[in-house]
């Protein structure tokens, strides 16, 4: 089981393929503990975890986890993304980086930035600050949840 924090909500991803057996007593205690701590439970299996393009995107991003991003650069990125989401390429132009991809990946590993990994992740992928979540609509392109700030450039 993996527990992830999203804003004020915690979600426990219960990886069902990894269970050797089901013990009703311990599983019942687990469900009580999750409920007591207000942790939502989502069952996932190997097919879900390995689904493309999410698996490849995750591997590419995780490959940059060791890159150190200085405070000044991180502040520039946060300023650039504070009013709107933008593509990695646009972010690079906004902060003066030729290749912002490794930096963005590193910050995603540190949970500072988010993107929709259900679509191909590359220079044209849209990114946002962690508090500005993406929401997938049915069969429509991913939409940005946070409304744009008045006067912000698009």
Structure in words:
This protein has 6 helices and 8 strands, in the order E-E-H-E-H-H-H-E-H-H-E-E-E-E. It has helices spanning 24-36, 46-49, 54-62, 71-81, 88-95, 101-109; strands at 2-6, 9-15, 39-44, 86-87, 113-115, 126-129, 134-135, 143-144. The strands form 3 sheets. Strands 1-2-3 form a 3-stranded mixed beta sheet. The protein starts with a strand and ends in a 10-residue tail after the last strand. Residues 135-154 have low confidence and may be disordered.
In short:
With 154 residues, this protein is α+β, with helices and mostly antiparallel strands.
Key phrases:
154 residues; alpha+beta; 3-stranded mixed sheet; 3-stranded antiparallel sheet; disordered C terminus
Beta-strand percent range: 15-25%
- Helix-strand pattern: EEHEHHHEHHEEEE
The coarse overall form would be elongated
Return the structural class.
alpha+beta
Q: What value does the average pLDDT take?
A: 79
The Cα radius of gyration reads 18 Å
Biggest sheet, strands in spatial order?
1-2-3
Major sheet summary line: 3 strands, mixed
Q: Could you give the distance between the termini?
A: 40 Å
Please give the number of β-strands: 8
Write the layout of secondary structure elements.
Layout: E1 2-6, E2 9-15, H1 24-36, E3 39-44, H2 46-49, H3 54-62, H4 71-81, E4 86-87, H5 88-95, H6 101-109, E5 113-115, E6 126-129, E7 134-135, E8 143-144
